Amino acid sequence: MFDSSNRYAWTKPELGLAYANDALAISQELNYTVGIAMSYIVLSSNLRQMGDYAGAMDLGFRALNIFKKENNINGISFAQYSLGGVYKDQGDYSHAIEYFKTALNSDHILDTDSVMHLMNLNMPFELYQAFHYIELADCYSDSKRDSALIYGQKVFSYLSAGGNWQFPFYVMGKAHMNLNNYDSAIYYYRAGLNYKGTQNPTDISKIRIGIAKTFQKMGMLDSTIYHANQAIEVADSMSYLRGVNEASEILAYAYEKKIPLNQFNITNSIKLRETVYLISKKQETFKVFAFRQQLEDREIQQRLDESEIRYKNRLNIYILSGGLSILLIVSLGLWRRSVFKQKAFTLVNKQKQEIETQKEKVEQILQTLQTTQSQLIQSEKMASLGELTAGIAHEIQNPLNFVNNFSEVSNELIDEMKTEQAAGNWSLANEIADDVKQNLEKILHHGKRADAIVKGMLQHSRSSSGVKEPTDINALCGEYLRLSYHGLRAKDKSFNAKFETDFDASLPKINVVPQDIGRVVLNLINNAFYAVNEQRATNNEQRDPLVTVSTKNLGNKIEIRVTDNGNGIPQNIVDKIFQPFFTTKPTGQGTGLGLSLSYDIVKAHGGEIKVTSEIGQGSEFLILLPISISKI
User: Fold this and answer.
1) Which of 57, 161, 316, 627 has the fewest Cβ atoms within 10 Å of its own Cβ atom?
2) Does pTM surpass 0.85?
3) 126 Cβ partners below 8 Å, 6+ apart?
4) Listing from the earlier edge strand, what are the strands of the sheet with 557-564?
5) Are 533 and 432 in the same domain?
């Protein structure tokens, strides 16, 4: 049905409409969306040939909307090409060029097999692509005539791909005619008439009109009249109204120049035939070539002289009828346009109301989400506070138990010491005094441990009040690496380990709080030195302890890596090491707050901190900091 409608669109558009309507009915029955859209396009093509441009455009846009909803790139391109043809036939070349060029650009990314199958066209894709070039050439022929020649020449390179196509010769002839190259124009027009293959009545009519216009410009009125009559005959045979009208205008001009007598009446009579033809092509008495036959018989001059008054009265009636008909057509067009605008206005209002309704629903949902979020945050805060409180109580309870126990024992020992002194047993009293001293040392040790826990908590909870400033991360890491090493050496003379650096020289300065980032780096390096020292003490394998600190520029981020070759962290506790009070060090050697504090500092700077570890091989801590960050 598509194929038949396409074929008859250029020869018998009434029959083409019938096939297109059958295709539409079948597609709707099968709920075949692409078929419905293609039916609209072939219906549009047939209406376009019959001069119903409003109906053709309406159907073209329906097809385009369907293809857009289906995201069918091939269909969108085909619909845009069809709409470009409708705009061109109405003389709206700017919109026609826009649609042709859009369709042409889309074709470059199309699947050629798919688009040929979609349009049911038995032709090479290159030939279909040439349609766009020649349509653009036709649009440019009345304005940018050089562009018309350029696009027209492109088409002839495609003609060898196959097909019977006379239209390119018409466009090239038209372009040369507008450039006053009359010989070239006649050459292309005649080549089009003589082109072998199936003859397209529409193209033949256009070529005849082009020849008539060329001879008209050359002042050859007899040839003008001949070819204009030929164009009317072909156009009328297949209801090509635009061709009839253009040829009629040429005839009116030619007869006006050829027969000056009563030229006002003759010219207006011929032009009146165009208006009446649009109302009913079956009214043979008002056809232009009826006047042509009367003029060729020469007897019309005598009849006009004898009945001039009666003829003028009849002519006035015709003109009045034509004017009323035109008014009716214009009124119908305006009414249809008003109905279309009203529908569009109603649709826009409906969509606006729907948008407002959806907006209100979204705002309600957002408000509910914000309320729920606040509740969840508060619940999370309370849960975190409970966990923190439990951790604090657990960590402080141990040193406090030691302090209380040793204080109680020391108190009893002092009573015993007093008793022995009173009895004069000074040797035993001195032994008791030594025990009291040992207890006081233990009380002092556990008191300092509790003090360290409290200070660590205060430091962990303290919000940073430092000021960000451009900082050289390489220099910062080098400084804290040396500080950590020499600090550990000062505490333990037996401590020894190798350390290496691999700093990226292209690292830019970034805005950070240097004291906070330094605290993070120092904590990670201290942990690394502790790990390699433990590995040396517990592992009989002879492996030199090594800590490596490196940096790298990643473009939008910088990377800091602290690597050690210690014993590694068991996989089951890797996810816990950033939790407050969690530590792998023996009791009394760590508070479990260092990595938790480091995690919070890095996050506050908009960065990330990660850890990877392998038992027996060591651990690696990775810090990622953005190069461009906002103030903390």
Assistant:
1) 316
2) no
3) 158, 161
4) 498-502, 546-553, 557-564, 618-626, 608-614
5) no
